[in-house]
Specification:
By secondary structure, the protein is α+β, with helices and mostly antiparallel strands. It has 12 helices and 8 strands.
């Protein structure tokens, strides 16, 4: 768009100059010469701009463009769901569910996965796990209900499925079924998960064992992380530490700010969510909610913000994934027009997150 504006301005200036030269040369007197030049230099550009604004369909506001794009995608999803109707099309419902997941519409995803899973007679384990995942992302409390039951059934048939082991472990952990959580997460740890998740699993399993009086697990993080070390992003690249602020032990000290120019996109009553995860694809470990009009803001994430029962920030080691998102609607789920930024942070150290992107 910037290139378009530059080229348009250059072509307009050239056209005006070509018109002004003959008017200036052939005008009968100085008064007519000045009048002709003013008409060409002022009235013609204003008339052209006015005409363009009346007939153009381009949306200049970035947030409005994002809203138009996401609304179009939502209409596509709604139309596809209506077209599927009562059709016995497992692949169609599966694709629709994955489309909803991409939109972070977990309610729609759960609805579509449920239809696809029912059509298989409950025989498709992959669909069962995806359905349980959508239910858990829609509301973590579902892990103690239908999602948990689906995961139990999936693990009975595919005991080494990583997604089922993770979410099934969460369900057992939240319900206080320590031996089940230990068995599931222990098996997941043996499957060489990504380094941040390996660290979290080692810590959680050590915590479970210490509660039962058993010896904590040895720190296997370094060995497990070796295959994934090259893929990890250095902390300094994503979240440079705040000068003069060393952080606090057992807490996350964060400075969250907006990139220049995004301030005007924030609506009234928008909310800032700061979400902490062990890995970018993992579930939230801690969440802080503050009014977006407080930006830029410095805050401390502590154990009071942790979502998992018994979880302590002091027990987490290594880089954690941080997402800072300005929700225009106040909803914790992302929607079109929301502003966000991502980075890494380490418990006990200070970090800075810059919000510099818009959800399409």
């Amino acid at each position: 768009m910037t290139l378009f504006l530059v080229l348009a301005a250059a072509m307009t200036a050239a056209a005006l100059l070509l018109l002004m030269v003959p008017v200036w040369r052939h005008a009968a007197d100085a008064q007519r010469r000045l009048f002709g030049v003013l008409v060409i230099a002022v009235l013609l550009p204003l008339g052209s701009i006015g005409t363009y604004l009346m007939v153009s369909t381009w949306q200049w506001d970035a947030q409005a463009r994002a809203e138009i794009a996401i609304d179009s995608l939502r209409r596509m999803a709604a139309d596809a769901e209506r077209d599927l109707g009562a059709a016995d099309d497992v692949d169609g419902w599966r694709s629709l569910a994955e489309f909803y997941m991409g939109l972070q519409d977990f309610e729609g995803a759960a609805r579509a996965f449920e239809r696809a899973y029912a059509m298989t007679g409950g025989q498709d384990v992959s669909l069962a796990i995806s359905y349980a995942e959508a239910l858990a992302l829609q509301d973590p409390r579902n892990l103690s209900g239908e999602a948990g039951s689906l995961l139990d059934e999936a693990l009975a048939r595919q005991p080494d499925n990583p997604r089922a082991l993770w979410y099934g472990g969460l369900a057992a952990y939240g319900a206080g079924r320590w031996s089940v959580a230990e068995q599931r997460w222990g098996r997941l740890l043996e499957l060489d998960p990504p380094a941040p998740l390996a660290r979290l699993l080692t810590e959680r399993l050590s915590e479970i064992r210490s509660q039962s009086g058993e010896a904590p697990l040895p720190d296997a993080t370094e060995e497990l992380a070796r295959p994934f070390a090259a893929a990890e992003r250095p902390l300094a690249d994503a979240a440079p530490a705040m000068e003069g602020s060393p952080g606090e032990p057992g807490r996350l000290s964060l400075s969250v700010s907006l990139a220049t120019g995004l301030e005007t996109l924030i609506r009234d009553r928008a909310v800032l969510y700061v979400i902490v995860r062990a890995a970018q694809a993992g579930p939230p470990l801690a969440v802080r909610r503050v009014a977006a009009d407080e930006l830029p803001v410095s805050l401390v994430i502590d154990d009071g913000d942790v979502m998992l029962p018994g979880q302590r920030l002091a027990d987490l080691s290594g880089a954690l994934s941080i997402t800072a998102r300005v929700s225009q609607t106040g909803d914790v789920s992302a929607s079109s027009g929301d502003l966000y930024g991502e980075g890494d942070a380490v418990v006990g150290e200070a970090a800075r997150i810059i919000i510099d992107r818009v959800v399409p």
